[in-house]
Structure formats: structure tokens, C-alpha cells
Amino acid sequence: MDLIDIGITVGKVVIIFGALMGMVAYMTLFERRVIAFIQGRIGPNRVGFQGLLQPIADAVKLLFKEDVTPAGANKFLFAIAPMLSFIPTLLTIAVIPVAESSTIFGREVDWIISDINIGILFVLAVTAMEVYGIIIGGWASNSKYPLLGALRASAQMISYEVSLGLALVGLLMVTGTFSMTEIVAQQSSFLQWNIFKQPLGFLLFIIGAFAEVNRIPFDLPEAEAELVGGYNTEFSSMKFAMYFMGEYAAMISISAIMVTLYFGGWQGPILPSPIWFLLKVGAFLFTFVWVRGTLPRFRYDQLMRFGWLVLLPLALFNIFITGVIMVL
Amino acid sequence: MYMAIFILFAIMSIAGAIMVITLKSPVSSAIALIFVLCCIAGLFALMGALFMAALQVIVYAGAIMVLFLFIIMLLNLKDEILGEDEKKVTRVFGSILGIAFLLEIGFFVRRALTVGSESLMYPVPEQFASIEVISTGLFTKFLFAFEITSVLLLVAIIGAIMLSKGEGKTEY
Amino acid sequence: MATLEHYLILSAILFCIGVFGLLSRRNAVGILMSIELMFNSANINFVAFSKFINPDILTGQIFSVFVIAIAAAEAAVGLAIVVLLYRNFDIVNIDKINFMKW
């Protein structure tokens, strides 16, 4: 571990997180433009060419807003809740291999920040921590709609985490490893992608992923039609921006996980590997926006019934089928 | 470096534990407990038990504590409901018993370690954190305990549902 | 280099904090949380023994997996009882609930 190694690690962190933050910023614009297209509108196109400077304008606007703390709120928890929601979403990206290993300064550089051998468990652990930002934020606001949003978030996240984890069990049975790098290495050609070995598992995982990042049709914690803004009603200025960025970063990192686990990661022909990775992640991000433009929101009882009575049995069935196929 | 990280986690977990039992609001103490659990997960990782660290965060901090927070917020427990009175007797009794326990455990730890503290340091093998070894143990040597645990969880689920279902006061 | 002794002392301290909390807390949720603290100090012991005494067979870690499962069951049933107490008595103070039947 000399200076060059440290420099390479720092460089990797800076590049990967920089790219993630850039994607978060432009994801907001992308979502607004795509939603506008779906709804037959134009969307933001005034700030810069085709609205390309819109994220910067939004950020400046949010920065200069007044930072309000509601009366009776728990000040400490109110201040740290947005960070608790934002930081875990960034941590996920640390175990995802984003590109082919390359040689820099005569060293082999793996484009993954931390290649731990329990990568998938790390992802699950970090996903489990994401809910606290919402719960604590909703409770600390000392207001009824955020509290309702927080309650919904906690029940929803526990319910869907179960099927998310069980969907991964089928994948783990096929791959036999928890390491992200090895899982990518196993999917070297198109037909070896895990999506073809685990189609049902992938379906369950993507539904669980939508629920984990609180996107439509599972966005009950922030359902603006019923709960004003849900858990983030009382937040303003940069605190609100952090929740907002946290949601988008969660979307990007869960897309990156799906790409890595089921769609061969950065691997692909002709084009360089980071481009392939970005293209695949972009396809998933488009799916997120597409679903938002298409599907209505679940009702709360439907959400719970769907999670426990449909997803959970299907996840167990998937494990059973995978086991049977592997034995035969 | 190792020692510094250990001391950091140890101090944070002890401070968090003290907050768990002294803070008035149950939500605050639950959050302090989550902090303690994460620190303990850090200690597990420091010992090389990465699987246990991940399990600690996923199951303990991620599921059990969410359940705690859910119940606390659902019941909206305020001070008058908690009925935390200033009963000094239990507090004095608690501290005496706690300190006595600490001295006793400390004494035995001390004595056990002075007997053969050299022999306690085996080299840690490569596969210490291996999920494979843990699961092999679970499905062979401890299979019975494993299956019984699943029955226990089933019983707990049924018990929890039976206890908490229904509306209003229970009819006896 | 932290040795087994350090981990054992840490877990003893956490256990004693848990015991103190168990005895001084009056609300049921606080008591459950103190019990969780004690479970965790036991877990530290299991993993530390597994690492420092016999790192080859990992029995300690397997045991702490069981401890976590049991803690989950305990939390679920305990919190269900808290909900029941709240619904029937509007209070979760265990001192006020000192009769078996009425």
C-alpha cells in the first residue's frame, strides 16, 4: 500500500461517486423530460440547450430557500434524518464493479471501490438501513402526515425486503458466490446472463426494488395525493434536496445492482465497458420513469396483501424450483 | 490501528448503550440502540466475522429495530403512557446489581485469562468469515437446532398475530 | 492488537448496562430494548470466542445466528404484548400492571 495505490483508490472513489452524483443531477431532468413526453407535454427546455442546465438551476434554487424547522420537532434527529436517507444510497455503489479492470501506472486496477466477498449481503445491509432516514425524518417532524408516511415506509420496507432477500437466494443458489466480481465474471456471454437462469427471481427482485426505493406504484410513504408529501412534508431547502437526491441515488444504485446481478454487469461487445454499464443502467432508469408514467399507485391494503400473499410465496416457489432444477 | 478502531467502536457502543437506558423518549433510545447495533456490527467486521456483521445489520438493525420503531410510533407513546416514574429504589437496586455483575464478570475474565492467555491466540485461518463453513455447520451439526429455530419463529409469528389482532379492549 | 480480554470486558460492560436498564426502566419497550442490549453482549462473546479460541469450526458464530433468530422472535412477541397492554390499559408501565386478572 504505497502512495500510488492510495492515489488509485482515491481516484476510483472520486470518479465513481462523481459519476453517481452527476447521474443523480441529470436523472431529475431525464425523468421530467420523459414524463413530459409520455404525457404529451414538452417539459423543462428553457435553461440551456434542451434544458440541460435545469438541474443546476434547481440546485441553486433549493440552496437559497429558507431552512425551516417546525415547532416541536426533535432538532437533532430532524437535522440528521436527510443524511441518514442519503448516505446509505451512496454506499451501495461501493461494491458494484462498474468497468473492466484496466492498467494504470503499471498496476491492475479493478473498477470496484471495495471488492469484499460478501458483496450481496453488504447491499442488503445497506438497503436495510435506507429506511431509517424516512422513519426518523417522519417522526422528528412532529407532524401527522410525515408520521403516517414514516409508518407506511417502515411496514412497506420490512415486507418487501423479505421478498427481495428471498429473490436473491435463488440467484445465490445458481451462482454459488456472494462476490459481485465473480457474479459478473460468470456472466461472460449473453446467454449466460442470470436473467435467463432466474427469470422469476428477477421479476420478484425488480418489484421489490421498486418498493425499496419508494417509486410508483409503491410510493405510499410520500403519496402526494393523500399525505401532502409524506415523510418529507416538513423538510425544506437542502434537507429536502437531500431526500430528493437520496431517492434518485437509490434508484441508480438499485439499477446498477440489477445490471450487475442479472444482466452481465459491464460486459458487452464492441463498446468499452463503462459505456455498456451506463447503457444498461440507463435502460433500467428509463423503466423506472416509464412505470411512473404508466401505473397508478397501490392502495395500502393492496400493497400489504400483494407483498405477503403474492411476492413471498412466489419467492419461496422460486427457491423451490431452482433447487429442483439444480438437483435434476 | 486495529486497537484504535476497537477502542473507537467500544467507546461509541458503550456511550450508545448508556443513551439507550437513560434517554426519556423511546424513539431516541431506539435510535441509540440502532447505533449500538451498528457499532457491534463494526466490531464483528473487525474480528473478521463479516457474515455476522452483515447479519447483524440486516436482521437486527434493519428488521427488528424497524419493528420497535413501528410499534413506538404506532402507539405514539408519550410520557404519561410510558409512566416512567422516578422510583429511586429500582434505580439504586439496578446500579448495585449492574456493578456487582460487572465486577464479578471482570474478575472471572481476569482469572480465566491469566491462566492461559498465550494459548488463547490461535492464528486465524483464511476461511474464518466463510459463509460456506457457517452454513455447512448449520445444515449438518446444528441441523436439529436450525429446524427447531424455524418452529420457534413460526410459534412467535402465530403468537404475535394472536396477541395483537382485533380491535379495542380484549374480552375476557 | 485487541485480544479476547478486550472483547470480553466490552461485552461485560454492555451486559451490565443492559441489566441496569432492565431494572431501572419502567416501560415495557425500554425493558425490551435493554434485553436486546444483553443479547448483543452475548453475541460479542460468541463471536470473540469463536475467533480467539477455536477459529476453525465457527461454532460461536453459528450460535450467534441462533441468538439473532431468538431475539427476533422475542421482539415480535414482546412487542405484540406491548400493543395488547396499550390497548387494554392505555399504559405500558409494567408497575401499573400488577394483577393477573380482574
What does the model show?
The complex is a heterotrimer of chains A (328), B (172) and C (102). Chain A is mainly alpha-helical and 328 residues long. Chain A has one domain. Chain A is 68% helix and 3% strand. Chain A is built from twelve helices and two strands, in the order αααββααααααααα. Chain A has a two-stranded antiparallel ribbon with strand order 1-2. In chain A, a hairpin with a 2-residue loop joins β1 and β2. Chain B is mainly alpha-helical. Helices cover 77% and strands 0% of the residues of chain B. Chain B contains seven helices and no strands. Chain B is globular and about 55 Å long. The mean pLDDT of chain B is 78. Chain C is mainly α and 102 residues long. Helices cover 75% and strands 0% of the residues of chain C. Chain C contains three helices and no strands. Classes of the chains: A mainly alpha (328), B mainly alpha (172), C mainly alpha (102). Chains in contact: A-B, B-C. At the A-B interface, α4 and α5 of A face α2 and α3 of B.
Strand and helix map with partners:
The complex is a heterotrimer of chains A (328), B (172) and C (102).
Chain A (H helix, E strand, L loop, with lengths): L2 H36 L15 H10 L11 H17 L7 E6 L2 E5 L7 H22 L3 H32 L4 H7 L7 H4 L1 H14 L11 H4 L9 H26 L10 H22 L5 H28 L1
Antiparallel strand pairs in A: 1-2
Chain B lengths: L1 H21 L3 H21 L3 H26 L3 H4 L5 H29 L14 H9 L3 H22 L8
Helix pairs in contact in B: 1-2, 2-3
Chain C lengths: L3 H21 L3 H25 L6 H31 L13
